[in-house]
Amino acid sequence: MNKRELNPDASPQAAFGARLRGAREERGWTQDELAERMDYSSVHISAIETGRKPPTLRFSRSADRALGKAGTDGAFEREYREIKHGGLLEGFPQYVEHEGRAVEIRLYQIGIVPGLLQTPEYMRALADSAVWRGAITPEQADERVAFLARRQAALVRARPPAMLVVMDESCIRRPVGGPEVMGAQLDRLVEFAALPNTVLQIAPYSMGERRPFDLPLNLLTLADLSVTAYAESQMRGHFDRDTGAVLPLLAAYHQLQAEALSQTASVDLINEARKGTP
Residue 4 has what pLDDT? Predict the structure, then answer.
């Protein structure tokens, strides 16, 4: 039988298939043998290896069990989640599952406007920049933009959550996507501040060392009044539901709100920044 050549650089899906074939062949297994261990057909294995079918969560976990990769850095489940969520950091998909059910959302962001407040053009500019740097593929960029749009849409409901947002001043000073894109984004922030269920505050540069966080932070209050937290660095995200770890973050967030500008002063600062754009 002719063996079909694989191109792992063609797409994340193709890379998954090529790695599956490599792991299978390292063990000297045929597709039939792997299929039997995974409880799938050999036809299905072939379709995944050649990229004709996308992997699923169930398939990825089954492959990990069969190939001894469960819980490792090279787990197929981990690669599947990167494909599905466009290279999102670990912990973030779990956070998003709770975000859609939260009754209150508190956000703190540095450097860029929080995703839930981004315009489509602003988020596209960020995604395209990540492709240009080689951090993600064009396919992952498309999924990242679509994923963020779905997050925003999930918050448009009969009883929307209360949203309290504090942004470092760098978020409105750092130009993204050119003057037109940035101008529309600043307009969007002013519109957001006028909604009945929102509070928007700017943490000015003048706060200096009184700023309690050096990294972005998301806090969710759920219907049962439990609070969860998601924080991330450049390379890692962490979702936490432990009360003992989350409550100190909530207390520090309250301090941040007390030190930040009022919403009225924050909108004035955004409008001042807007004057420098078309």
Answer: 64
